[in-house]
Each structure stands twice: as structure tokens, then as C-alpha cells.
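Q: How do we represent a protein-ligand complex in a form that can be generated cell by cell?
A: Start from the inputs.
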Amino acid sequence: MIEEKIYNFNSHGDHRGELVALEYPKDLPFPIKRIYYIYNVPGNERRGFHSHNKLEQILIAVSGSVKILLKTPEDEKTVLLDSPKKGLYIGPMMWREMFDFSDDAVLLVLASREYDESDYIRNYEDYVKAISNMKGEGKND
Ligand code: TYD
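Then emit the C-alpha cells for the protein with thymidine-5'-diphosphate bound:
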């Protein structure tokens, strides 16, 4: 079973508007090494299609909405991100796809490591093999 981990951020709101501040270790499970954001995604486009060996991330729809598919060889779950106050944690070895971006969607990603192409698994069959290898190694412990 995939249990998605959602962070509900505190927003400082008053008549001037809203402000969310995120600080490690108070609000975040890892110190941020990198941020990136994805926007102007056509509504019919799907992105992601990878997992990471080590990277941890928190995804936030700071504007608009986007759906995130979380997938393992056994299970899958779709999470709707539709609030700047909501953060979805994705840890290592989780396949993810992002889709159904609203026209105004801006997906902000907080990442625990610098960009490293060798940390990616971009082929689903390779991902399934890597998971099954990990489980095999676990059995010998
Ligand atoms: P890509 O991995 O295809 O995006 P997605 O995960 O949404 O499918 O990344 C798009 C391009 O951006 C690709 O050329 C790699 C580059 N990129 C960086 O240079 N730094 C980064 O931190 C990230 C996430 C991507």
C-alpha cells in the first residue's frame, strides 16, 4: 500500500494576503539543496516517468493544480495537489508521473540533492528490476 506523505504548511494570512515560509528542520524533513519549478505545461502532457535512487523531494502546487501518480511494482496512487499549503513528500525508489496540469499550474519542487542524472531511473522495467534486486538483497540480511 502506498501511503502518501502530505505536509500541511502553515500560511500566515491577513488582509494583505498569504505567506508560507518553509524552514529546515522545523517544517521540512531535509535541508534544501535545489529548487526547480515546472509551469506552462499543456493540459494533455504527462511528465516525470522516473524514480530516483537517493533523491528526496517535496512537490507543491504553488499555483493551480496538478495530479501526481505514485507507483511501485505492487501499487499505485494518484494525489491531487491543488493548494500552496500542501506539500507531497516523495522519497527514493518511487516511480512518479505528473499530469492534468491546470493552465495556471506552477509545480514547485524542493529537492534534497543537486541535479545528478545518474540518480535517475528513467525506464520502468529497470525500476522494477532495481526494486526486486533490493528485495532480494534484503532477504539475505
Ligand atoms: P526532465 O527530467 O525531463 O523533467 P520531468 O521530470 O518533469 O519529466 O527535465 C527537463 C530538463 O531539465 C532536462 O533537460 C534536465 C533539466 N533539469 C536540470 O537541468 N536540472 C534539474 O534540476 C532538473 C530537475 C532538470
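The chain is about 10% helix and 45% strand. Residues 20 and 63 are 13 Å apart (CA to CA).
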